[in-house]
Design goal:
Elements (H helix, E strand, L loop, with lengths): L1 E7 L7 H9 L4 E4 L8 E5 L2 E5 L12 E4 L4 E2 L1 H13 L8 E4 L3 E2 L2 H14 L11 H9 L12 H22 L7 H15 L3 E2 L1 H10 L3 E5 L23 H6 L10 E7 L2 E3 L12 H10 L11 E3 L1 E2 H11 L3 E5 L9 E10 L2 E3 L6 H6 L1 E8 L16 H14 L2 E6 L7 E3 L5
Helix pairs in contact: 3-4, 5-6
Bound molecules: guanosine-5'-diphosphate (GDP), 6-O-phosphoryl inosine monophosphate and magnesium ion.
């Protein structure tokens, strides 16, 4: 009986999909606990690429149980599309895929308000994925949201849909000059979605705890990343959930004592999609090279990702917040061929150097990173299977990160495929 959490240590897209897929080999159950289809988790198996949005990456392993926990917000239309796409590619769902009755739904008006609010903000926009994530979580907190279980009580569903749609129509028309929605149409489409996903719907909090108590290995799959956390991230340039460890408990119903390992997925450099502060961003040729070599274009929206050097101030903060005890270092291969590689080890602002991640956006935007510089390597490392076979300069870089963070590596990833990985420690 064991439980390991895999989460993003940066601003998302660290390679969580690949890491979860690899460790699923030893897991019995994989659970998503936060976010929604704003996530895009890439798994490459023998050259074939799959991008998971809502469905846990463990679905790629036959026979493993996959659960969408209560902390996730679900757009049922997107869920059905994802299930159908994966089924068409030969992935089975029967008896091994479950969706929490308590998870909140993304409604059509959430998507409309998400996009409209971004358009209105102009240059101050957050750069959301436009999937309705923020408005859905806002309704959850305002206690007016609809949950998966509401889809199965026609009276409740109708009442809630009509109440919400009539209310949002007033705001949409009078304040934003938007077209109103037809509540009857929304009711009917959600009733239909409910019927389609019914075979998968379950009381997952009890289910996960039962599986854990039966001795199963549980993998909790984080989405987004630490610095996009609504509490701990670069607010307001964040998502609307808790991708840090705390979210794994509220979002599944598992108790904190269940957790054995926390794997922080860390890209060997940094990327960010959307707006907001990014202290080590490189808006020059070096940044462009990271983007080109790393294929840094969003898995969900296709947007070019902003790129920069690794930031150890931010990573130490991530370690502290979630109790990370293993690092999964990804995309080290992308740094091959760089003459010099830099790592941020401190921030300088107003003549003072510090090593804590500040809450103030103004400070984050105006500080100067303090860098330590490393010599690069030129050897192709994608086929390396043993740590000792890495080039000396790559080892120096990797050792430095480990020593600064004071944690062991679970793995070092050297390419997109399952095979292109050096596994150093098991997490189950
Ligand atoms: P996630 O959201 O954290 O699951 O990450 P994404 O899937 O959005 O982005 C990570 C991208 O990097 C995907 O295209 C992966 O296929 C790719 N990737 C993962 N690990 C490696 C690696 O070690 N090397 C290279 N070159 N690409 C990787
Ligand atoms: P994975 O799981 C990277 C970013 C968006 C935007 C902000 C808010 O693939 O790592 P939202 O639509 O959530 O309200 O957008 O959060 N964002 C991500 N960036 N990876 C993700 O997921 C993200 N999910 C949301 O770009 O800046
Ligand atoms: Mg992603």
């Amino acid at each position: 009986m064991s439980c390991s959490l895999v989460l993003g240590a940066q601003w998302g897209d660290e390679g969580k999909g690949k890491v979860v897929d690899l460790f699923t080999e030893e897991a019995d159950v994989v659970v998503r606990f936060s976010g929604g289809h704003n996530a895009g988790h890439t798994v490459v198996i023998k050259g074939e690429k799959y991008i998971l949005h809502l469905i846990p990456s463990g679905i790629m392993h036959d026979g493993k149980v996959n659960i969408i926990g209560n902390g996730v917000v679900i757009d049922p239309e997107a869920l059905i599309e994802e299930i159908n796409d994966l089924k068409a590619r030969g992935i089975s769902f029967e008896g091994r895929f479950f969706v929490s009755k308590r998870a909140h739904l993304i409604m059509p008006y959430h998507k409309i308000f998400d996009k409209h609010s971004e358009a209105k903000k102009g240059s101050k926009k957050i750069g959301t994925t436009g999937r309705g994530i923020g408005p859905s979580y806002a309704d959850k907190m305002a206690r007016v949201g609809l949950r998966v279980c509401d889809l199965y009580d026609e009276e409740v569903l109708k009442e809630k849909v009509f109440q919400n749609v009539e209310e949002v129509n007033l705001i949409a028309e009078r304040i934003h000059g938007l077209e109103p929605l037809n509540p009857q149409e929304v009711f009917e489409s959600y009733k239909k979605y409910g019927e389609i996903i019914k075979p998968y719907v379950a009381e997952t909090s009890y289910m996960i705890n039962k599986l854990y108590n039966e001795g199963k290995n549980i993998m909790l799959e984080g989405a987004q990343g630490t610095l996009l956390d609504v509490d701990h991230g670069t607010y307001p340039f964040v998502t609307s959930s808790n991708p840090t460890a705390g979210g794994a408990f509220t979002g599944t119903g598992l108790a904190p004592q269940s957790l054995n390992n926390v794997v922080g997925v860390l890209k060997a450099y940094t990327t960010r999609v959307g707006s907001g502060p990014f202290p080590t961003e490189l808006e020059d040729e070096t940044g462009q090279r990271l983007r080109d070599v790393g294929g840094e274009y969003g898995a969900t929206t296709g947007r070019p990702r902003r790129c920069g050097w690794l930031d150890l101030v931010a990573t130490k903060y991530a370690k502290m917040l979630s109790g990370i005890n293993y690092i999964a270092l990804t995309k080290l291969d992308v740094l091959t061929g760089f003459d010099k590689i830099k790592v941020c080890v401190g921030y300088e602002y107003n003549g003072k150097v510090f090593e804590t991640f500040p809450p103030e956006i103004k400070i984050l935007e105006n500080l100067t990173p303090v860098y330590k510089e490393f010599d690069g390597w030129t050897e192709d490392i994608t086929k390396v299977k043993r740590y000792n076979d890495l080039p000396e300069n790559a080892k120096k870089y990797v050792e430095f990160i480990k020593n600064e963070l004071g944690v062991e590596y679970a793995l070092i990833s050297l390419g997109t495929d399952r095979e292109e990985t050096i596994i150093l420690n098991k997490v189950f």
